[in-house]
Design brief:
Blueprint (H helix, E strand, L loop, with lengths): L33 E5 L23 H11 L3 E5 L9 H8 L5 E5 L7 H10 L1 E7 L10 H11 L5 E5 L5 H10 L4 E3 L14 H12 L3 E4 L3 H4 L18 H10 L4 E2 L16 H11 L3 H16 L5
Length: 310
Amino acid sequence: MTQATTGDFTKTPGWLDWYTGPSKPRFTVPAGAVDAHCHVFGPGAEFPYAPERKYTPCDASKHQLFALRDHLGFARNVIVQATCHGADNRALVDALKSSAGRARGVATVKRSVSDEDVQAMHDAGVRGVRFNFVKRLVDFTPKDELMEIATRIAKWGWHVVIYFEAVDLPELWDFFTALPTTVVVDHMGRPDVSLPVDGPQFALFQKFMREHANVWSKVSCPERLSVAGPKALAGEQNAYRDVIPFARAIVEEFPDRVLWGTDWPHPNLKDHMPDDGLLVDFIPHIATTAELQHKLLVDNPMRLYWPEES
Ligand code: 0GY
């Protein structure tokens, strides 16, 4: 794969481009595996980045995403609208339409979206909306507006994907637990993995999932959550080892409500860009049996995104 340029847009200073030569994973994902969290960026010359964006990425096209899918051994993608495209879902919809049914999508919409627009996105393969509460990524949207959107999209059988930081869960709890749809949490609600896995911060997230059977979690982004980083210690095998106890706890307690994704092309990483092949090799450390791996990578994403085939 070759790195694309970014059209007329100037990348955010210090932006790390995605890794162009990912290794072939040693872990073979099960047949029919779904990469359930990834993005497309532009290309900016064709699908301009949104004026309200908080970063300008490098381009990362649908062709490059599909090539990565094949290289890693996955069958399908769930493409999640990234904040650099705001509520302009054209790049996402174009990728879905080019996927021959092998990609579904999660869009970002505003209150002003029409039923016709929702239906057109549904026909292209969109199955959810994303509400982002990470303050460095988006401006604030009133919760009554988000609840109105959630109520409307529920009529299409869509779900809500939420992205937030663990410290904000207490304040967001009442809103999240009132959502009328399936709710999918990005990256386990971004726990601080330097805190104990059995401490109060992660316990609140586990309570959130335990008490609300409609809540699912992506056990994704060790490269984003890790403090230990990608280097294994002498005598240890694992990159991102500090994330393992958190992700494994969620997979083992909620095996039917977990999803996994690469997060390619990995927006906003500051220190290192992961080799996506090594990210796949992380999976057996968090889903330690063939049965758990099959649920995580095939059964669960198929039930949520391709229910007609599962
Ligand atoms: C992710 C994480 C990030 C960015 C976005 O939409 C986005 O811009 O989700 C982040 O910066 O933490 O899931 O891709």
